[in-house]
Amino acid sequence: MGITSVKSFVISIAAAALLATAGPAHAQGTLLSNKIAFLNAIKERDALKANELARTGGSAILDVRGDDGSTPLTVTIAREDAEWTGFLISKGANVNLPGKGGDTPLILAARVGFHDAVRWLLSKKARVDQTNRSGETALIAAVHQRQLPIVRLLLDAGADPDKADTAAGLSARDYAKRDTRSRQILQAIEAKKPATTATNFRL
């Protein structure tokens, strides 16, 4: 093999190696770009864009986090948007992925009083006692906001009323005892017997 042939061979090997490494990097960059575009489409309620990105990007695109920590699912739940929340859940969005402050979709839905979202999330096996960065559970959030129907839903799903947060070391039961303006919540907690199996919720 002559010198020219050797040089050509080396160049071709180097080019092949460059393409091999550039391929995955390019694909990863495209996925990240599409994730950001998907989150923006959710925020802007751009149905055409969101559907197209969800169709081409698959489940990997549904669980992006924005710079502020928000996820598509926490964005739609925060604005109590049933249509978009249902869309994301039906597409397979991670129902346990935390957003800002470690709030899970279930904690956020309980806090804002989004009853339908709580039911849907529980039907998709959302972890009922998962906590945020303050140790707050969905049940504690519901008690704070005096969301009696949601308190009952969570208790039926097996939520632990005695799981204490890390902010004050208090549980949902403790907070309910301190709140003299919503005695029905304490009554619901006191009446609930420890569950051996969680209730199955259906959409």
Which features characterize this protein?
2 domains, repeat, mainly alpha, 10 helices, signal, single chain, disordered C terminus, Serine Threonine Protein Phosphatase 5, Tetratricopeptide repeat, 203 residues, elongated, 0% strand
Number of helices: 10
CATH class category of the largest domain: Mainly Alpha
Parts with pLDDT < 50 across at least 5 consecutive residues = 13-22, 195-201
Mean pLDDT: 86
- Structural class, from secondary structure content? mainly alpha
* Element order: H for helix, E for strand: HHHHHHHHHH
- Please name the fourth-level CATH homologous superfamily of the largest domain: Ankyrin repeat-containing domain
Organism: Sphingomonas lutea
InterPro entries: Ankyrin_rpt (IPR002110), Ankyrin_rpt-contain_sf (IPR036770)
Protein name: Ankyrin repeat domain-containing protein
Keywords: ANK repeat, Repeat, Signal
Characterise this structure.
By secondary structure, the protein is mainly α. The chain folds into 2 domains: 32-127, Serine Threonine Protein Phosphatase 5, Tetratricopeptide repeat (Alpha Horseshoe), CATH 1.25.40; 138-192. It has 10 helices and no strands. The protein has helices at residues 3-43, 47-57, 72-78, 82-91, 105-112, 115-123, 138-144, 148-156, 172-178, 183-191. It is elongated and about 50 Å long. The relative contact order is 0.08. Keywords: ANK repeat, Repeat, Signal. ANK repeats lie at residues 68-100, 101-133, 134-166. InterPro entries: Ankyrin_rpt, Ankyrin_rpt-contain_sf.
